[in-house]
Amino acid sequence: MKFIIKKERLIKSIQDALKAVAVRTTIPILVGIKFDADENGVTVTGSDSDITIQSFIPKEDDDEELVEIVEPGSIVLQARFFSEVIKKLPESIVEISVEDQFRTIIRSGNAEYIILGLDAEEYPRLPVIEDGDRFSIPNDLLKLIIKQTVFAVSTSETRPILTGVHWIIEDQHLTAVATDSHRLALKKAKLQSETGDGKTYSLVIPGKSLNELLKVLDDSNEPVEIIITNNQILFKAKNFLFFSRLLEGKYPDTSKLIPTDSKTTVKLNAKEYLEAVDRASLLAREAKNNVIKFSTMADGAIEISSYSPEIGKVVENVKSLSTEGEEIKISFNAKYMIDALRAIDGTEVSIYFTGTMRPFIIRTEHDSSILQLLLPVRTF
Amino acid sequence: MKFIIKKERLIKSIQDALKAVAVRTTIPILVGIKFDADENGVTVTGSDSDITIQSFIPKEDDDEELVEIVEPGSIVLQARFFSEVIKKLPESIVEISVEDQFRTIIRSGNAEYIILGLDAEEYPRLPVIEDGDRFSIPNDLLKLIIKQTVFAVSTSETRPILTGVHWIIEDQHLTAVATDSHRLALKKAKLQSETGDGKTYSLVIPGKSLNELLKVLDDSNEPVEIIITNNQILFKAKNFLFFSRLLEGKYPDTSKLIPTDSKTTVKLNAKEYLEAVDRASLLAREAKNNVIKFSTMADGAIEISSYSPEIGKVVENVKSLSTEGEEIKISFNAKYMIDALRAIDGTEVSIYFTGTMRPFIIRTEHDSSILQLLLPVRTF
């Protein structure tokens, strides 16, 4: 194998592939990144066996020559070390060639590295995804769907299925739901393309995979093609392929959790309310329980407070835009409220309560596609 | 105690004082910051008992009112929590008042915190530094002196005296020396003011103190007054006092370590050489020994190389500006060379060797005040 390549483009592809490379792995070759050079260009692959990211460098892009393939072939190189070497090379052009025994020579300007590579034949095969159901979502919308839900997945392995986000595809709509059983995030989106034959799909994508996918997606509205098979999902964008395994098992039916009526509705300026919760959360966090109290006041305002016998207390009044229905005093986890408000990202938010011990929902007027639900905390 | 203060100025002072506050401490009250309000303004003090930083907020600065003292007094507040609370307050003005039982009320806009403070009487007294020998150094020069030496102190407690930087003050000159017995950094500077009576001072300042001092010094050329007593040093700048204990014991005589002759002199472009060493260090670091090899070549160039049987090797040629004297092949710690070159920060550097097993020195033509010395590593 031998190719001569633009350094900056190689760095970009290595950085994308690196996001899938685990720091510790039980499969030694997965500390490496695989390079495949053929007549079309160079493919850079990183994997931790759950996630695989493949970045492709074509010979030319917009009439600019990116890579000259002198001799096709494959090699696996230690990912992090190789990445640092490439970043520090003196010239903008790098020559990479493989000799006997997987010895790989990297030349740039007056610098020459010989590093010991590994046999690409021993690198795990990619999942084969030929025929699968496919649809597409623009980069920016896909990012938004992930950001507005993935934070609510469970981080505990006691119910592994809850560490993923549940995607339901039905009638050209995607519904994404995540819950850790203390809070729930839900986002709906319309799909651009047909999903074929009116079938319904239900899949659970690991939260960790979606968090890594976020890092490689760009902010364009170019479509990302999504292909689903039994146990894998593939995201196919212009310059990369992103494979993730799916979680096995049945995701709980969350639709019954979401209250449809409300006894108290409070509408607030989102920024003022978030800042007040954030300040109260400082004390709540210091008190270790992270719990703050929300009370409607006689004058229509609300009071946010937190108390700890060791540290002290905080009380804050926030004007409401409107308050309807019964009085309420309710306690909840401050961090979950902050996460929910950040996900909604509106100028105003409305909170719908159905009682001190019942889950409540947070929405915004100008975007009906997103819903956040929190369970209250019992305080005695 | 009660005062009303500009939030931004309070934050600045807390951040300075926080640099002295240890995360873990055996003296519980030192997790706090002490506030003293009197007719002149507010003094904010943080300490870990080795270092004490005191930041003063005057009532007025440049005709701008900074703080209104309603009632003088003192309180100690939990440092990190209080700092975060202040940073998140809604308004630019903060009212702080202390009630019974050290309950401290913080008000800003609609937010009100009550936090439990500690008795300021229990906070350790500052070292009394009234009469001491004093001289002064501008902020920017003091920063430079520290930066060019402190990195070379020992991090091991086997010889505690080497964890400090040795300052010798003599004939209106300061000489600062640091060594961890593998390398040495030396910087000389002329002092602005008289040091009194032609006395010679010799003191050892903990490296940790100097690193913290670096963070509070600004880049102005305003003088910092330095006052020395038996076991303390005080740095007195416009807005803060910085106290540090001195290390006890005799610092070794390092002057004999520095060779005065040279058998080989190589002059190099500093940037090219640093980059080559930096690249070679990647492999040396991966190989765990951090050792690189420096060889003069027949054509006057030098070769930088590193080799590891497990990882591979790197070879790089660097043109020299001049090479005089005997050929040399020598090995040294790459990180120490990088530290030395960064400290010198010149456009060219000259390296003076006196043999493969002898310490060698690195200097730059345009700044004779700095000298770096490295011990070679034996490679077999």
From TrEMBL, chains A, B:
Q: Which GO terms describe its molecular function?
A: 3'-5' exonuclease activity; DNA binding; DNA-directed DNA polymerase activity
Q: Which GO terms describe its biological process?
A: DNA strand elongation involved in DNA replication
Annotated ranges, domain DNA polymerase III beta sliding clamp C-terminal: 256-378
Q: Which residues form the DNA polymerase III beta sliding clamp central domain?
A: 137-253
Compartment(s): Cytoplasm
Q: Which domain of life is it from?
A: Bacteria
User: What is any Pfam family matched here?
Assistant: DNA_pol3_beta_3
Stretches assigned to coiled coil: none
Residues forming the DNA polymerase III beta sliding clamp N-terminal domain are: 1-127
> Mind naming one GO cellular-component term on file for this protein?
cytoplasm
Keyword DNA-binding: yes or no? yes
Keywords (alphabetical) are: Cytoplasm, DNA replication, DNA-binding, DNA-directed DNA polymerase, Nucleotidyltransferase, Transferase
Indicate yes or no for the key word Ribonucleoprotein. no
Primary localization class, coarse: cytoplasm
SUPFAM superfamilies membership: DNA clamp
Q: What InterPro entries does its record include?
A: DNA_clamp_sf, DNA_polIII_beta, DNA_polIII_beta_C, DNA_polIII_beta_cen, DNA_polIII_beta_N
Subunit note: Forms a ring-shaped head-to-tail homodimer around DNA.
What does the record give as the function of this protein? Confers DNA tethering and processivity to DNA polymerases and other proteins. Acts as a clamp, forming a ring around DNA (a reaction catalyzed by the clamp-loading complex) which diffuses in an ATP-independent manner freely and bidirectionally along dsDNA. Initially characterized for its ability to contact the catalytic subunit of DNA polymerase III (Pol III), a complex, multichain enzyme responsible for most of the replicative synthesis in bacteria; Pol III exhibits 3'-5' exonuclease proofreading activity.
- Give the similarity note: Belongs to the beta sliding clamp family.
Please identify the protein, giving its name as recorded: Beta sliding clamp
Q: Which organism is it from?
A: Fervidibacillus albus
